[in-house]
Write a structure and sequence with these properties.
Number of strands: 5
Shape: elongated
Structural class: mainly alpha
Largest sheet: 3 strands, antiparallel
Radius of gyration: 31 Å
Strand order of the largest sheet: 1-2-3
């Protein structure tokens, strides 16, 4: 029998499903289309080969996302999301190199969004690996600027105003999409929890006439209806009634009060047993409805 997964294992698996993977891939297609067109039209002071790399990386990423949407039922959704996420990291890195902005590139701002989405959909383990790789890339780009291999801040100062405007617009689009995906997942989890609670209450309704909860001191803390609380004299005094004192062999007054609960019906049992932790309380009297 498979034991329930721990919280860390649940986090490591993520909450990926087919519908969320499709949303992620189609948003990737939209971002790549807008970005490739903008990169082709903006007057960057770069060589033709650098522009080909800049535009080509985004076009290839968009095509990869389109192919992923067609293979959504043949390939696990988690694999498609991870492939698209790693391709996005590569495309953003190539954009930073081809434009010459290096570690100052605004395209690197997609890294935190991608890592956050991977953490939600694919799990924290994959997101941690991706975060470390992204940090290594940024460090290498900064080292390249120091060595003079990448212009960095100088090239960024010469960029047209349209570049930061379009980049920020794409970042806002990506952020909105990630928020919508997380909201969908949260609502789905909430509805699932409500369904489980409804099924649990249905099972309790068919398994017993009434139920109540006791704390570690055998005090009544909660009942399923007001009648139980009224019959146990909880409504007359404190909201907690001592049912039994485990340290004393004699029966306490609160335990005798518990015996007078009128809401529990055991029609064919001469003996009822209540287990709490390692203690056992046996009530040999029959409680009936009056």
């Amino acid at each position: 029998m498979r034991m329930p997964a721990s919280a860390f294992e649940d986090d490591a698996r993520g909450l990926i499903n087919t519908r969320m993977a499709l949303r992620f891939l189609w948003v990737g297609v939209a971002v790549c289309c807008i970005g490739s067109i903008a990169s082709m039209l903006q007057p960057f002071q770069i060589t033709p080969s650098a522009r080909i790399v800049l535009v080509g990386a985004q076009v290839l990423l968009g095509l990869l996302c389109i192919v992923g949407t067609q293979m959504i039922h043949a390939v696990p959704a988690r694999v498609l999301v991870l492939a698209a996420a790693w391709a996005s990291v590569i495309a953003a890195t190539l954009a930073a190199l081809s434009i010459g902005h290096g570690a100052h590139s605004l395209d690197l701002s997609f890294f935190p969004l991608i890592v956050g989405l991977v953490a939600v959909l694919a799990g924290t383990r994959q997101a941690l690996v991706m975060a470390l790789v992204c940090a290594l890339i940024i460090g290498l780009l900064g080292w390249a600027e120091v060595e003079g291999w990448v212009p960095g801040a100088g090239a960024l100062a010469q960029s047209p105003l349209s570049h930061p405007l379009i980049t920020h617009a794409l970042l806002l689009l990506a952020g909105f999409t990630i928020g919508a995906i997380m909201l969908r997942l949260s609502n789905a989890s909430y509805r699932s929890a409500q369904d489980r609670e409804a099924r649990f209450r249905g099972l309790l309704a068919t398994a017993a006439d009434h139920y109540w909860e006791l704390d570690e001191s055998l005090r009544l803390r909660r009942a399923d209806d007001a009648a139980t609380l009224t019959a146990s004299a909880v409504s007359k005094g404190s909201s907690e009634v001592q049912l039994h004192d485990a340290s004393r062999p004699t029966q306490s007054s609160a335990a005798r009060e518990h015996r007078r609960l009128r809401c529990l019906s055991i029609p064919k049992a001469e003996e009822s047993t209540v287990r709490i932790g390692r203690s056992r309380i046996v009530d040999k009297s029959r409680c009936t409805i009056h």
